Amino acid sequence: MENLSHLSLSPLLERALRGFFHYKLLTLALNLLTFEVLRPARPAAWPRVSLLVPARNEAHNLRRTLPTLLAQGAHEVIVLDDHSSDETPLLAARLGARVLSGAPLPPGWLGKTWACQQLSEAATGDVLIFTDADVLWQPGALDAVVEALLRSRADLLTVWPRQETRSAGERLIVPLNDDVLLSLLPAPLIRLPFASAAAGNGQLMAFWRAPYERLGGHALVRGEVLEDVTLAVKLKTRGGRLAIALGGDLVSVRMYRGYAEAVQGFAKGLPKAHGSSRALLALSWGWHLLAYSWPWLSGRHEFMLYALIERLLVNLKSGRRAPADLLEVLATPLLPLATLPIYLRALKGSYSWKGRTYHRPGHKAHDARSRP
Questions:
Q1: Where in the numbering of this chain does the Glycosyltransferase 2-like domain appear (predicted)?
Q2: Which secondary structure element, helix H or strand E, spans residue 316, and what is its range?
Q3: What are the phi and psi torsion angles at 82 (to 5°)?
């Protein structure tokens, strides 16, 4: 490709871009040292633990993941079948889980928040661990989660499983989930009382029952597409303690099966993450195009190096160290183009997920559900 060095920026914009990368790399350096990673450990005490799995058409995942959950030694494993059209409830029961049939979705609720609320009401544990059906638990993972929860003295421990990616499209965009966390949020800030320093991941959230119920449970976030983040923020707002960790070698997940599903999934929560502002969405995409693609077109080696180091450090810290994981760093300049369909889909007034269609806040239509 011809060096397009004439594509220059104003000095002010270059300083802003340099500051952007400096902040991200400094945050990454801090998180390399301080962000907790789950390690094999035996808890000093063993509270009564409920493992809770919301499931809608998840038979393809549960075949692989549910046996690993059942082997953890929890007091109970409950799967809530949210009106699946596949064999989710039969499979879960056959494997040995307690299976609940979900009630019809009430107005104002999203499918996952309603499923989690029903699970919490049926559970008997002192510790409620909500985990997605696609999360794979290795032997000893529950011990590590409970030990980290006890040691941190937190009301909520939320964990980011290591990302499994198989297709090229997944490799391009799914690790951005880790990048946002590790390059923008300094882990030590989580211990401070400020609600703005909060993060949550619904793939694995371990609550003590008492603070969860004082908070109002998932009913508090019934209509929130980013219910995990909102729960973490609300918890800290009300004086609760939050802890965060990476899954390391103990907990992993394949979030999406292919590029198209990843685009659909990421587009659900992107507007909320940008304050439901279309202008901010457009600005965000343009900024990332400038930060990650422009340097390669203009031959600005400084910014090219920053971007490569950022992606490399994220992969190393999150446990994605296989040769293919490290080689995907070279695709960094393609990221803005790969995420463009996500931004375009996020600009729409509605989205569909697992057979249900939802309308975003600010649009006149109410939830339109193809099934209960």
A1: 50-162
A2: helix 301-317
A3: -95, 70
